[in-house]
Amino acid sequence: MKGQILHISESTLIIRAENDQKLEVSISEIKSEITPHVGDTVDFDIIEEKAVNIFILRQTASLDEHLNSAKEMAGNLFSKAKGQLNEENAQKAKNLASQATNKAKESLKNIDYSKATNAIKNIKLPTNTGTAKLHNKFAFLIVVLIFISMVLPLVDIGFGSSQSYFQLVESNSLMVIFLLLSAVSLVLGLPRLITRSVSIIFLIIASMPVYDGINALNDMGMFSSRRRSNLDGLDPFFDIIQIGMPLLVISIVIFTILQMLPFYQVSNKFKPQAEVPLDKSSEQAITE
User: Fold this and answer.
1) Is 154 exposed, middle or buried (0-12, 13-18, 19+ CB in 10 A)?
2) Are 218 and 127 in contact, with CB atoms under 8 Å apart?
3) Average pLDDT, stretch 171-190?
4) Contact 157/239 with Cβ under 8 angstroms?
5) How far apart are the C-alpha atoms of 103 and 89, rounded to whole Å?
6) Cα(196)–Cα(288) distance, rounded to whole angstroms?
7) Which residues, in sequence order, are CB contacts of 170 under 8 Å at separation 6+?
8) Vertex 224, ends 219 and 230: CA angle to 5°?
9) Separation of alpha carbons 199 and 252, rounded Å
10) Whole-angstrom Cα distance, residue 282 to residue 275?
């Protein structure tokens, strides 16, 4: 008997037979190697009102037939394109390509690679002798210390859980950027104006959350109490602070003081250069 597939699920399918009877059968009853689809025509036997030995009657082309058809189509397109191409134009294109290739080869031969090699060898990175001074090294160490204090536990939020600076401050990407800029400017010994500007912006961004947190604790009565002495009023504050808080505050204060001191050293590469007398080799190169 023949029928048509109406529905397919993971393990079963529904077939409508020629007599409009709907049969639910297992997919394992399909004997064809073709994947069934809704709408396929099938041939099956009915034994004890069950459909068995189901075969799909859908016509499928083999892979070789599809490949042969594609090859034939590609061959026809190539033949048409080749027929439309003028032999004279093709020869001109070949000649132009040959000339361009020859010119490129000549240009490569004429390049003096020794000059390029010498130019690369003469490139020198900033030696940054200024950053070898104690002030720059100490300031860089303080920046690293500030970053470490921001990673360490800052306050105890209760229930035995502590949070760091980065966990408490929601938006800290801008602060991290200026922290890195401050560290890089100290390492390279950039001009003092640039380093100081970047450092001041970093200090402002990093200090604002700490200042707001201290004000919030003050508003909650953490620092003063009418019923307690001034020292007793500090007890709640000492109960919640962690190691990161004093380390962060001390580091920020020290870094602020360092920005006021006049001992910052600028790298020689970034200092205004005076006229330097040429050596003999340079004079010979200029005269040549």
Assistant:
1) buried
2) no
3) 84
4) no
5) 21
6) 46
7) none
8) 160
9) 11
10) 14
List, in sequence order, every residue forming a beta bridge with 2; answer none if it has no partner. Answer: 43
Whether 83 shows a pLDDT value over 50: the answer reads yes
- Answer yes or no: are the C-beta atoms of 237 and 223 closer than 8 Å: yes
| 3-state SS class at 53 | strand
Instruction: Give the chain's mean pLDDT.
Output: 72
Q: Which amino acid is at 125?
A: L
Pairing of strands 41-47, 22-26: unpaired
The share of the chain scoring above pLDDT 90, in percent, equals 0
Question: 242: which 2 tokens?
Answer: 């962690």
pLDDT tens digit sequence for 249-288: 888 899 888 888 888 888 777 776 644 455 555 555 445 4
Cα 243 to its chain centre, rounded Å, is 33
Counting every residue, how long is the chain?
288
Residue 2 CA, chain-centre distance (Å), reads 59
The pTM of this model reads: 0.43
Identify whether the C-beta of residue 126 lies closer than 8 Å to the C-beta of residue 188. yes
Decide if 26 contacts 55 (C-beta within 8 A).
no
Cα–Cα distance for residue pair 252/258, rounded to 1 Å? 10
Contacts made by residues 16-21, CB under 8 angstroms, sequence distance 24+: 17/46, 17/51
125 pLDDT band, cuts 50/70/90, is very low
Specify the pLDDT at position 276: 45
* Closest to 164 in 3D by CA, of 141, 140, 146: 146
Residue 118 zone, left/alpha/beta (φ > 0; ψ -120 to 50; rest) = alpha
d(CA 12, CA 44): 15
